[in-house]
Design goal:
It is a single chain. The longest helix is centred in the first third of the chain and has 16 residues. β2, α2 and β3 form a beta-alpha-beta unit. With 150 residues, the protein is of the alpha/beta class. It has one domain: Rossmann fold (3-Layer(aba) Sandwich), CATH 3.40.50. α1 packs parallel to α2 and α3 packs across α4. The chain has 5 helices and 6 strands, in the order βαβαββαβαβα. It has a 6-stranded parallel β-sheet with strand order 4-3-2-1-5-6, with helices on both faces.
Length: 150
């Protein structure tokens, strides 16, 4: 069994939906198993595409109910783990395809790197979620600024 993880945002524009849908179709045509976070956006579009081509779709759900899965998920896995489920997706997939996305997708990419997975990006320009500084002194100044605003 070859598992392909498709990761990306849950709120996406139409062009990203189309890209994810086409990706899902290609996965389904090759009889790869699709694994996603099981919800909307990129996850739903890829699931729909894979399912329409006869593929098997696994959804690793963040909450406590199978009913939250998009309607193309064959195997809903309820985790109750919220974003921590991203570890399961990254660890379970043989390869990850990131389409668009934000911080949640970035966490999946990071876990994929930890687990030495092949990661492919399509229209995925995720910025680093931290402020870059050049020294410990500059870092502590930023910490001081942060606390002074609290």
């Amino acid at each position: 069994m070859k598992l392909v993880g498709v990761i990306g945002g849950s709120t996406i524009p139409e062009n990203i939906y189309k890209t994810a849908y086409e990706m899902g179709k290609l996965i389904g045509e090759r009889d790869y198993v699709l694994i996603t976070g099981g919800l909307g956006g990129v996850m739903e579009a890829a699931s729909k595409g894979a399912k329409e081509k006869g593929g098997l779709v696994i959804g690793i759900l963040p909450g406590n109910s199978r009913r939250t899965a998009n309607k193309w998920v064959d195997v809903p896995i309820v985790t109750g783990m919220n974003h921590a489920r991203n570890v399961i997706i990254a660890q379970s997939a043989d390869v990850l395809i990131a389409i668009d996305g934000a911080v949640g997708t970035q966490s999946e990419i990071a876990f994929g790197n930890i687990y030495k997975k092949k990661i492919i990006g399509i229209e995925c320009n995720i910025p680093l979620p931290f402020e870059k500084v050049d020294s410990p002194e500059e870092a502590i100044e930023k910490v001081d600024e942060f606390f002074s605003k609290k």
